[in-house]
Amino acid sequence: MLLAERCESERLRQIIKELQRHRFGRRAETLPEDQMLLGLEDVEQVAAYGETAQDVSAPEGREVQAGRRRVNRGALPAHLPRIEVVVDIEDKTCPCCQGELHRIGEDRSERLDLVPAQFRILVTRRPKYACRACEDGVMQAPAPARLIEGGLPTEATVAQVLVSKYADHLPLYRQAQIYARQGIELDRSTLADWVGQAAFHLRPLHERLLGKLRRRPKLFADETTMPVLDPGRGRTKTGQLWAYAADDQPWGGADPPGVAYVYAPDRKADRPIAHLAGFKGILQVDGYAGYGKLAERGDVQLAFCWSHMRRNFYELAAPGPAPIAGEALKHIAEFYAIEKDIRGRSAEERCLVRQQKSRPLAEAFEQWLRAKLALISQKGKLADAIRYALSRWEGLTRFIDDGHIELDNNTVERSIRPITLNRKNAFAGSDGGAEHWAIIASLVETCKLNDVDPLAYLTDALTRIVNGHPNNEIDHLLP
User: Fold this and answer.
1) What pLDDT does 350 receive?
2) Where does the record place the Transposase IS66 central domain (predicted)?
3) Is the pTM of this model over 0.85?
4) Of 189, 217, 354, 332, which Cα lies nearest the Cα of 278?
């Protein structure tokens, strides 16, 4: 009885520590890069302020400051237009002999200049013609196709609204405020209408992108919550945005990376089954049990995520001394050290190294986990963490015999991060709006994965679509 109470007390203490860390501590094991950069920005600002004050007070002044700025300040891209300004002397007469000075060279420097974004109005004129000798008809060139028939924007303007909302995390009302500062009064509902019409035209690209991903032999899958307005209750409901990604770069694959999001109002296991209909191969996922039904059909093998498994032990080790959890982290670190060395090699090489180095580590780690599980209370959080690992061991170790599989699911988690940033600034107004979010975000994030400018891509794609791009050449429009 006393032993049971002690075990329950220890379990409750662990839960309290976990809640305290969740409420007051960091949300991730490492400080997110964006937050870290925010802190570094302030440090660099203070340093620059001090350097400037020192340089201004120094006798050399500007020369000292200019010398420092020449050190590792980056390079300006060659494709940008150059506007040359010649700063010349007024009098080209020698002050000694009064002879004419001749040019012996020049100093050249480049600075990055910015012209603020400007709105302009494209005026389309279509002259009408008629024959003086005939009374039949008037000749006139047909009006060019428009994305928004009878509307104000060009395709480039609509693309800018899409990129600002889904890539730069600017809700439509903030964009309306930006436009208003330049005298362009656009209601948020007008911008929303543009987004909706663009989403309609881009839907075939989203479907095609998801279809091409389903043909790949290896995919990552994950899901995240999506707040959606529920007018009937006067608040938001929680939908789900499912993400399916492919990236063969770690093993030198030739296929381009891509990610497709699909909105669903719930997290039922039937969702990934429907989304991945026809997919056959390896699906790398977290520990969500719903993916198990997909694997039961026999065409899909699940590879589980070591990062998720590691997180369970980290949460136990982070609050204070936890010898077993800390030892588990050391075991896991050995696998990541091997993966770091073989990243970028061919799938065959990765498989060979893993069989030689990772397999003995995995066998030893499994035995260690089972031994420790037998020694500790079965009701504690540590036992839960060990059982989580052992119950998924086949999927966790599947990477050893397949060089195409990664150790974790971080590829798709990185693709979900921009969604979470958008989610902090806005929510979907309806299930339909959440579907539009999935369509456009899929194309924008796939652009990023392939180093394609989303604004240039969407402008080009929308222009081609409204001008009748053939459906049998839809692959040419994918990012």
Assistant:
1) 94
2) 151-435
3) no
4) 217
